[in-house]
Amino acid sequence: GDVYKRQDESFESFQVKGTHPLHPLNDYQALYTHPAYGDLKVSEKWGKLSLAFRDLGGELSHLHYDTFVLKKSEMLSGLKVQFETNLLGELEAVSLPLESGVAPIRFEKQAAIRFSTPSYLAQFKGTYLLQGLRIQVKSTREGLRLNIPGQPTYTLIPTRENRFKIKSYPGYFVRFEKENSKFKVVFIQPQGVVEALPSQ
Predict the structure, then answer these.
(1) 93-121: buried (b, 16+ CB within 10 Å) or exposed (e) per residue?
(2) For residues 54 and 69, what is the distance between their CA atoms, to the nearest angstrom?
(3) pLDDT class of 36 with cuts at 50, 70, 90
């Protein structure tokens, strides 16, 4: 206990005063997953965030910007918890220094379950035209797949309604936008935005 307490107090001196969380607290609430460490859950209740990981849990107290400190936790008290925002301004991950001498462990935010159901995903499948190329969006057991001629098959992972990230390509996103009752595909990339229209 004492080592943590001293660490915690000394850290407060580095606090950037007068900042606020960068998102509404409700946005942080989600399931976050790591392939080896499993699931971590962040909940919001009465204007306070809490974190649950395996059999550990505690309250998250705002330190500055998108960094919080875990309080009232039996074993991990004083841990600095940092949330990450992607290029689109959405919360994407949370990192925790779970082991000393190892880079913080990054848990990726999971979309609400309803954005992964087969019936939800089926509405996006079809053929679209991207600068003369016919691209295919297919719905599979693993989720949506995107085929562009001459390129590898891309897996689309839901982040929120009508929006997906492209697996293994950080900073690349796909948004489906309704236009005259049909969807078009908007590719959002670090270098700009490209649209693919529904094929007639």
Answers:
(1) bbbbeeeeeeeebebbbbbeeebeeeeeb
(2) 18
(3) very high
Q: Which two tokens stand for residue 189?
A: 């990339």
Q: What is the pLDDT of residues 51-92, one digit of tens each?
A: 999 888 889 999 999 999 988 766 677 888 999 998 888 899
- Which pLDDT does position 143 carry in this prediction? 83
Can you list the positions of beta strands (E) in the chain? 30-34, 38-45, 48-53, 56-64, 67-71, 80-85, 91-96, 105-109, 126-130, 133-140, 143-147, 154-160, 163-166, 173-179, 182-189, 192-198
Amino acid letter, 2:
D
pTM of the model: 0.79
Strand partners, 59: 50, 71
According to DSSP H, which parts of the chain are helical?
2-12, 25-28, 118-122
Asked whether residue 38 carries a pLDDT value surpassing 90, the answer given is yes
Tokens of 175: 């948004």
Element (H, E) at 150: none
